[in-house]
Design brief:
There is one protein chain. The chain has five helices and four strands. Helix 1 packs parallel to helix 2. The relative contact order is 0.15. Strands 1-2-3-4 form a four-stranded parallel β-sheet, with helices on one face. The longest helix has 14 residues. The chain is α/β, with parallel strands linked by helices. It is globular and about 40 Å long.
Length: 109
């Protein structure tokens, strides 16, 4: 906990002109490691596409909980498979936005 007892969340998304793929395990793992070394309480980052590669990211976080960003709008199955892979890899959870709030079932209620 930092400051007034609030947890510090670091949103670590690889960006910039030299980043060819922001979901590449090498760059995601590097970004997550930086956050862990800075002492954050939880890390939000991109999913790397499969459980095996994302486990490398989680392992590189030095015990700091990692959650995945919801990513681009996808089908229900793609979203569920992404969440399943992240959890199998050891992610602490997901931070879902558009895949939940822009879902067709929410717009029909």
């Amino acid at each position: 906990m930092h400051g007034m007892g609030h947890p510090l969340l670091a949103m670590m998304y690889p960006r910039g002109p030299k980043i060819k793929d922001p979901c590449d395990v090498k760059v995601v793992k590097h970004a997550v490691r930086i956050a862990a070394e800075l002492g954050v309480d939880i890390i939000k980052t991109n999913y790397t596409g499969d459980a095996k590669s994302f486990k490398e990211v989680v392992d590189g976080a030095m015990g700091v909980p990692v959650v995945i960003a919801g990513g681009a709008k996808g089908s229900d199955m793609e979203t569920l498979e992404m969440v399943e892979g992240a959890i199998k890899a050891g992610a602490a959870g997901v931070a879902m936005g558009r895949n939940a709030f822009q879902h067709k079932s929410r717009q029909n209620s």
